[in-house]
Specification:
- The protein is of the alpha/beta class and 371 residues long.
- The protein has twelve helices and 13 strands.
- It has two domains: 128 residues, Aspartate Aminotransferase, domain 1, CATH 3.90.1150; 221 residues, 3-Layer(aba) Sandwich (Aspartate Aminotransferase, domain 2).
- The strands form three sheets. The protein has a seven-stranded mixed sheet, with helices on both faces. Strands 9-10-13-12 form a four-stranded antiparallel sheet, covered by helices on one side.
- A hairpin with a 5-residue loop joins strand 9 and strand 10.
- Bound molecules: pyridoxal-5'-phosphate.
- The site of pyridoxal-5'-phosphate has 14 residues, from helix 4.
């Protein structure tokens, strides 16, 4: 059902819901295939991993299946222990989520309420306004600079009412990223009463020596929360698992509102298996790098500019409204992602696929644009 302002239950609902625009997911392949009556659509629309997870994941899940009648380990002990080791933090610093979206929601429920504010950038990830408005808090949006986060503009919007700043690094849907020095200075400039969320969903893909792992700073900045996910480079989007790294006393608050069994047992097992397979992760990263080159040079030869991206997608300027192009691509069995709802009506976000998918997409785009 689409959101409606004349829904009579709106006046009974929590403050913030009337202005809340629900998240628009990428179109599922099965839906398009059903609509077109074809069997071979490709989806480059949700920044999923085209290689999927490590084969060790399937093995680990099969081995864990006999125990599925039991509740999961609600404390996620083994996975948190391994993650804590990777990040060089104590186990108590790690909060597991049903996807990292869940952790973003926990942050909003703990630190935001009607009358206080969250600050984030124009073109930032759509879950930030949703999490903010769902708890009745007010969003302050800073204009972007060159499609990326303008840290000065964000800083200017921080007031005594600000409780949370959301930063995606790299950002979705633009792929832009912040360097170590500028991000550190920005966090250091904030009052300690402002929680800073650095969302590192695409961290594994970034290939820049100046790109920071902000989880290293949680003791320096007790107001810092870093989120990570298994949905992208680890290929576990369907399982819904992510986590936050923060000061243990911040994690303790997040855990007060967390559902006791928010992360299912197979997801925990899958994440552990995925973490072990470093060779698979490396293959994913290399495949992405090659696909990024293929798509960006393909766009360039179509005369299209794309926003330089450090992630597993690239957002291309079509120099015309994206709607008709998106629809025409669908008819050719190619699902991409319009980003009009992110304030980018002429851009299309394209997730990096396998070589033949990227090829098929570029061919379809060429035909659709009629060059
Ligand atoms: C995809 C994405 C996530 C991951 O969400 P999950 O709930 O972990 O699947 C988080 N943040 C950003 C910016 C993303 O693009």
């Amino acid at each position: 059902m689409s959101p409606s302002h004349d829904n009579p239950f709106l006046r009974l609902s929590a403050p913030g819901l009337s202005e809340l625009q629900p998240y628009i997911p990428g179109k599922p392949i099965s839906e398009l295939q059903r609509e077109l009556g074809i069997g071979s659509a490709i989806k480059l629309a949700s920044n999923e991993n085209p290689l999927g997870p490590s084969p060790r994941v399937a093995e680990a899940i099969l081995a864990a299946l006999p125990e599925i009648g039991r509740y999961p380990d609600g404390g996620g002990f083994e996975l948190r222990r391994v993650l804590a080791g990777r990040h060089g933090v104590e186990l108590e610093a790690v909060t597991l989520g049903n996807g990292s979206n869940d952790v973003l929601d926990l942050v909003a429920r703990v630190f935001l309420w009607p009358g206080v504010e969250a600050v984030f950038s124009e073109h930032a990830f759509a879950v930030y306004p949703i999490a903010t408005q769902a708890v009745g808090a007010t969003a302050r949006v800073a204009p972007a600079r060159a499609f990326g986060h303008d840290l000065e503009a964000l800083r200017e919007r921080v007031t005594e009412r600000t409780r949370v700043v959301f930063i995606a690094n790299p950002n979705n849907p633009t792929g832009t990223w912040l360097r170590r020095a500028e991000l550190w200075v920005f966090i250091a400039s904030l009052p300690e009463t402002v929680m800073v969320v650095v969302d590192e969903a695409y961290t594994e893909y970034v290939d820049d020596p100046d790109y920071p792992d902000a989880s290293r700073w949680i003791h320096e900045f007790p107001n810092l929360i870093v989120t990570r996910t298994f949905s992208k480079a680890y290929g576990l989007a369907g399982f819904r698992i992510g986590y936050g790294v923060s000061h243990p006393q911040v994690a303790e608050l997040l855990n007060r509102v967390r559902q006791p069994f928010n992360v299912n047992s197979l997801a925990q097992v899958a994440a552990l298996a995925a973490l072990e397979d470093r060779a698979h992760l490396q293959w994913v990263i290399e495949t992405n790098r090659a696909g990024m080159g293929q798509l960006t040079s393909g766009f360039a030869s179509l005369g299209l500019e794309s926003i330089p991206s450090a992630a597993n997608f690239v957002t291309v300027n079509l120099a015309r409204g994206s709607g008709p192009v998106y629809e025409a691509l669908l008819r050719k069995g190619c699902i991409a992602r319009p980003v009009t709802n992110y304030g980018l009506p002429n851009h299309l976000r394209v997730s990096i696929g396998l070589a033949d998918e990227n090829d098929r997409f570029l061919t379809a785009l060429d035909e659709v644009l009629g060059r």
